[in-house]
Design a protein that fits this description.
Blueprint: H1 9-31, E1 42-44, E2 50-52, H2 62-74, H3 77-93, E3 103-105, E4 113-115, H4 120-137, E5 149-151, E6 157-159, E7 179-181, E8 185-187, H5 195-208, H6 215-227, E9 240-246, E10 253-259, H7 265-278, H8 284-298, H9 303-306, E11 312-316, E12 320-324, H10 330-345, H11 351-363, E13 382-385, E14 388-391, H12 398-409, H13 415-430, H14 434-438, E15 444-449, E16 452-456, H15 462-477, H16 483-498, E17 511-513, E18 516-518, H17 524-528, H18 533-544, E19 574-578, H19 585-594, E20 598-599, H20 622-634, E21 637-642, H21 649-657, E22 661-667, H22 670-681, H23 696-703, H24 706-711, H25 718-723, H26 725-737, H27 739-751, E23 755-758, H28 765-775, H29 799-808, H30 810-834
Parallel strand pairs: 19-21, 19-22, 20-21, 22-23
Antiparallel strand pairs: 1-2, 3-4, 5-6, 7-8, 9-10, 11-12, 13-14, 15-16, 17-18
Helix pairs in contact: 1-2, 2-3, 2-4, 3-4, 5-6, 7-8, 10-11, 12-13, 15-16, 20-21, 23-29, 27-30
């Protein structure tokens, strides 16, 4: 009761192991009964067998008190788990519906008899120790630091004499100290930290930040802290070593994991998992979680460090989605996803989105990204070679860039000459780093089953490549190849591929969804189609949350031609325009008419509104939308728009996944959109008199971040302006209260659109070409035309008003910028294909 149980190093080496064995025996007595509650006494015979004593249980505190002290001493999770089992047992058998807990008799029975008695120790001690151990496990500061408090035999906390809580004429006697560590920083203790606590915390932070740290340096810091006056309450931790046997279908792989004093559990486990992934090991996720648990069994870990961390997903604009396991290295993993998306779909990830994604993934992790360079790592966005300028993506392999440039510049030269020029370009990009220039090698042909081949090209991520090869093998096998044989073949293929490629990701394990075990190469759309229409979309979403290769706005199948494949035509689909008013929606409807499409018969006739009129669609569910579209297509109608309300993200995702609709949107600068909309709606005629149309600022507040709100299923338009202006302002305020979440969700929704146009570029030939290629229309020319009432006012808008509108539309300005990047990338891809 005099402070830290490990204050004397001899306790840690001799007494503590004996105490743990004694407490293991106490816990075993609880686990040995059907009720998971121990009797009042038991006897251990000479042969080690146990004889249970009286079968009553009186809610005594001694066992949970011991669990609390042992958890404080060792920080091992198993003591918290044991306390949780006992608490669950008390809840099941002793809790009274009206309040309180009852003592129990005959605990050797499944349903013990209750005794009408609850001793005072249950409230004053038992519950108190339960609270203390669970509070410790939740993380944060200790509720009763043992350097400040003594707990009496009845669990009353008393301030230690002379300690920081002593109010009897004593003052806090805590020596302050600090150590300057060259090139790293200054080490200072936190309140109540021992020398070992401070040094280990500082060393792990330095290691996460990328500084060079060694065991010898940590020991020197520890001695310097002691010399400076730090409390030597416990010895410094030791380096841990684990030998992990990895099971595989071909042979075993043993990995020795060294965990230095200065490395956190999660960071050490992540290093080991990444090393396993490089060798093509199929289960780095399990390895990572097991190592975190094992390390925290043998050293002190904070509650946050002991949790392995979740899988996380973020959009990569404008191409796809990056899913990150907690052990993966974000710079390498996001780059692998970006290359894989280009190889399989032809879509090119935006540079800014690439860097922002890495930073976001790193920020989500308590251990951060050790040594990560989140800027451009010395890359240039332009390559000057042989008098020509080329764009270079920061996530691309230098050798792949070299091959592309050499093939373009020297198309008529010999293969050896082009290869030599490609190596020159790769070396130039790598600044002389030959190992960088050598990656990633040539295409590799995979044959998982006889007669089923798949060519894995240089940019394809190996684990995704194997998953696609397995999907092809499953279709060729037509049910003849068993699931076990196919997974074994996939594991062998990944191991062999990782011997010649750099592997950063793992082949996902099977996932159980709705009672069915799905492999990462299973056809989710085909599987979901077996469910009733109302449940199919939900089942597909459940499945898509489990594996990185299942879903996305791209289909994960490699193009048969070059990396830059054609924009897929969607002729025959229903074309759906998200008509953001005063963004040339009427002009686009006229373009659809010129291309021979019949518009939905909802008023006004020039718009083909799908949310108005007697035949309006049920936008609340995917089934209602698809059923309504099928009815329209049966009547020869192929175009419609929505201006007053759009689909909520889950409905949009389900409808887009059905592959029967081509979604189109025209995005406009939000301030100019607001100004022309205000001039049009505020012009009288019953459109919007007074209220939000009283002045441009009031109107801007109601229409703020309109594009993002529409993408997320919000409502707007003249009807809402007249009937619900207060709700519109409340909706805008709600969006501003969660800007990051709103922006992220809006950008993900934007990816579901087949065609994203920019109002300011509507008159360009590039826009016409993109419309023609994407929708298969013979005429893609669209003019940037506004109604007379919505044209810009000849009177300049005061700078103060424009600045206010810019602030109100902060989210929409970023959506507009993302739309421009998406448009430019689509145009670039189209030009590369046609040239």
């Amino acid at each position: 009761c005099t402070g830290d149980p490990l204050a004397d190093p001899r306790v840690a080496s001799s007494v503590l192991p004996l105490a743990e064995k004694l407490l293991d025996a106490c816990v075993a007595a609880y686990d040995a009964t059907p009720t998971n509650l121990a009797p009042e006494a038991w006897h251990v015979n000479d042969d080690g067998s146990v004889k249970l004593g009286p079968s009553r249980h009186l809610l005594r505190p001694e066992t949970v008190e011991s669990l609390f002290w042992m958890y404080r001493a060792t920080r091992k999770q198993k003591w918290v788990t044991a306390a949780a089992r006992i608490w669950d047992a008390l809840q099941r058998h002793a809790a009274i519906d009206g309040g309180g807990f009852a003592a129990l008799g005959q605990i050797h029975k499944q349903t013990p008899a209750r005794v009408d008695k609850m001793d005072s120790w249950f409230l004053s001690e038992t519950l108190k120790y339960f609270y203390l151990i669970f509070d410790d496990a939740d993380g944060g500061d200790e509720l009763l630091p043992l350097a400040e408090w003594v707990l009496t035999t009845e669990a009353h906390p008393v301030p230690r004499f002379g300690g920081p809580r002593d109010r009897v004429g004593t003052t806090r006697q805590q020596k302050t100290w600090s150590i300057d560590v060259p090139s790293i920083g200054t080490m200072r203790p936190l309140p109540n930290e021992t020398a070992a606590d401070s040094v280990e915390r500082f060393a792990q932070a330095a290691d996460r930040a990328g500084h060079e740290v060694s065991d010898d340096a940590v020991r020197a810091w520890y001695q310097a802290a002691i010399d400076a006056g730090a409390v030597a309450a416990r010895p410094l931790g030791e380096q841990l070593s684990f030998t992990v046997d990895i099971e595989s279908n071909e042979d075993g792989l043993a990995i020795t994991v060294k965990v230095p004093i200065y490395r956190s559990a999660r960071l050490a486990a992540a290093h080991a998992a990444r090393e396993a992934a490089k060798h093509g090991v199929a289960t780095p996720n399990a390895l990572y979680r097991t190592l975190v648990a094992n390390i925290c069994e043998r050293r002190r870990c904070s509650a946050e460090e002991a949790r392995p961390g979740p899988r996380q997903t973020l959009a990569l604009l404008p191409a796809g989605v990056a899913t990150m396991e907690p052990w993966e290295w974000p710079p390498a993993a996001v780059a692998a996803v970006a290359r894989d998306i280009r190889a399989t779909t032809g879509r090119i990830v935006d540079d800014n989105s690439f860097y922002e994604s890495i930073k976001w993934f790193c920020d989500q992790r308590p251990e951060g990204c050790r040594g990560a360079k989140l800027q451009k790592d010395g890359w240039s966005s332009r390559l000057d070679y042989d008098g020509e300028k080329f764009s270079v993506s920061p996530w691309d392999w230098p050798r792949s860039v070299g091959v592309d440039v050499a093939d373009e510049l020297h198309a008529g030269a010999t293969r050896d000459y082009r290869r030599a020029r490609a190596e020159d370009i790769a070396t130039l990009l790598c600044r002389g780093n030959t190992s960088c220039a050598a990656l990633p090698g040539q295409s590799v042909v995979l044959e998982l089953t006889p007669g089923s081949t798949y060519t894995c090209r240089p940019r394809e991520e190996p684990a995704g490549c194997v998953a696609r090869a397995a999907a092809r093998a499953a279709k060729v096998g037509n049910g003849i190849v068993t699931r076990d044989d196919l997974r074994a073949a996939a594991r062998r293929a990944l191991r062999s591929l990782c011997a010649v490629r750099l592997c950063t990701q793992a082949l996902p394990e099977p996932a159980r969804v709705a009672g069915v075990l799905l492999e990462p190469w299973d056809d989710v759309d085909e599987w979901a189609a077996h469910f009733p229409p109302g449940a199919a979309a939900e089942r597909r979403r459940d499945a898509c949350a489990k594996h990185r290769y299942w879903c996305g706005d791209q289909t994960w199948s490699a193009p048969e031609s070059s990396d830059l494949d054609a924009v897929p035509p969607v002729t025959g689909r229903f074309v759906w325009l998200l008509h953001i008013h005063k963004a040339a929606g009427t002009s686009f409807c006229s373009l659809a008419l010129r291309n021979g499409l019949r518009l939905a018969p909802h008023e006004p006739e020039t718009h083909g509104h799908l949310e108005l009129g007697a035949e309006r669609l049920d936008l609340a569910s995917a089934d209602g939308v698809l059923g309504g579209l099928r009815r329209l297509q049966a009547r020869g109608i192929g175009f419609g728009s929505t201006e007053h309300k759009f689909l909520a993200p889950p409905v949009l995702e389900a409808v887009a996944a059905a592959r029967g609709v081509a979604f189109v949107v025209i995005v406009r600068d939000p301030v100019n959109c607001t100004l022309s909309s205000y001039r049009f709606h505020g012009g009288g005629g019953g459109r919007c008199d007074g209220g939000p149309c009283a002045d441009v600022i009031a109107f801007g507040e109601a229409e703020a971040d309109l594009t993002a709100r529409m993408l997320l299923g919000g409502e707007f338009g003249p009807i809402a302006l007249r009937q619900a202006p207060r709700r519109l302002r409340a909706d805008a305020a709600a969006v501003r209260d969660a800007p990051d979440e709103t922006l992220r969700a809006a950008l993900v929704a934007l990816q579901r659109f087949d065609l994203v146009l920019v109002f300011e570029r509507l008159g360009d030939a590039a826009t016409a070409d993109l419309v023609t290629a994407t929708l298969g229309w013979s005429d893609g020319a669209i003019e940037r035309v506004l109604p007379v009432g919505a044209r810009p006012s000849p009177t300049p808008v005061p700078a103060s008003q424009r600045e206010a509108l810019e602030t109100m539309n902060a989210i929409d300005r970023r959506v507009h910028a993302a739309a421009i990047r998406r448009f430019d990338a689509d145009v670039q891809r189209l030009r590369a294909r046609t040239s």
